[in-house]
Amino acid sequence: MYKPTIGLEIHIELKTKTKMFCGCLNDPDEKQPNVNVCPVCMGHPGTLPVINEEAVKKVIKTGLALNCQIAEYSKFERKSYFYPDLPKGYQISQWHQPFCKEGFLEIGGKKIKIRRIHLEEDTGKLLHPQGADYSLVDFNRAGIPLMELVTEPDISSAKEAKEFAEELHLIVHYLDISDADMEKGQMRVEVNISVTKGKELGTKVEIKNLNSFRSVEHSIDYEIKRQIDLLNKGEKIIQETRGWDDIKEVTFSQRQKEEAHDYRYFPEPDLPPLHFTKKEIEEIRDEIPELPQKRKERLLKEYGLDKNSVNIFVYNKNLGEYFEGVIQEIKASVSKKELVKAIKRATNYLITDLPGLMKKNNIPNRPSLELFAKFIISIPEDKISSKGAKMVLEEMLKNRKDPSQIIQEEGLVQISDEAEIEKIIKEVISENQKVVQDYQGGKESVLQFLVGQVMAKSKGKANPQTVNKLLKAILTR
Questions:
Q1: In terms of pTM, does the model score above 0.90?
Q2: Which residues are within 8 A (CB) of 103 and not within 5 positions of it... i.e. 6 or more apart?
Q3: Are 415 and 421 in contact (CB under 8 A)?
């Protein structure tokens, strides 16, 4: 039985105002090529780089969030290799003394160890016009701060690798260090994978530049099968770098894999080593917000939500914050017993109805916390029907009107008085004797027809639960 061994290398472009070593704008949305460039990021002779302090802090913050040891002494090095979109002919990176090392991220109860997190500069971007026999180079991206995270080979399946990348992506958003838009190349995953039957690791193959979680999972599944098929045929695995074809869903050979000594690392002579005090590191730690896992645990405990709702509020951070803001508004106005019901109503409307109504009416922003809290308080089930509540919510979204005013104007308060409902039921029974006889003869399915008739006669205002209860009682007298 073959066992896969998987490690990840994940590159994330940091969200800073300027590039890593110069004052050029770090603007991932710039469409005009080669405008955010200068002699420093273009590697002109005689230019001197200057370290972006904000980028360094963002990497250390990430390391602290991922349980890493933070180096009190670190330095940059030159990594020499030649590629058309690398203007200097080398990359300023880190090798021997990265900012962060020996951390972990827990996935499904398993700790995936993190070997290192270091900081470097990104390359430019090659463009290949369709049908042309040449390529174009855009250096706007060259020199953007690029964080690289390297795991230990602790991952044992494609699913686990995908979940690690997804959780890291979420943490990055919570820390606000990057937009990590994978379609724009702001987060890129590389997979190192080998298969073996014994204790010794097999020959490692790297899959480069995966730009979606789906690609991470599918490329690993494919590569495991490819390597096992080769070994079963008695063939050897070649240590190489492979690409991933998203359409054909296959990996393909790109080049033989370089080793660390091929890059000829040596200390960057134009940049000083960096020293951090324990106090400076702790000041960065103090800036770390509540992270996803802790937030999940707190939401489950504090609000009694189901796991699915908690996941939605955690993965959509802004929605989760809005939910908590609404509940804080409600707390001052209701009893503890009513608060439990209000939490459930708020959760349901925020997850199911509100997004659909906003999209339907092309409304970009949610109502204020105060207004939405008023809506939740105004629609207890015994006073407003589900249909009526949605009508109130839509009108409130469109015109930002007070929900109580809408309820009053539209006459949406439910009839809950049993004597009044019983009077309507008797009228319906009188008008539908044949259906009543069918029900009393054992055809229980016709009950919903009678309920519908009562609701229609009351113009939708009768409380459905009360209608059901009274109708059954009267029909069986």
A1: no
A2: 63, 66, 67, 68, 69, 113, 114, 117
A3: yes
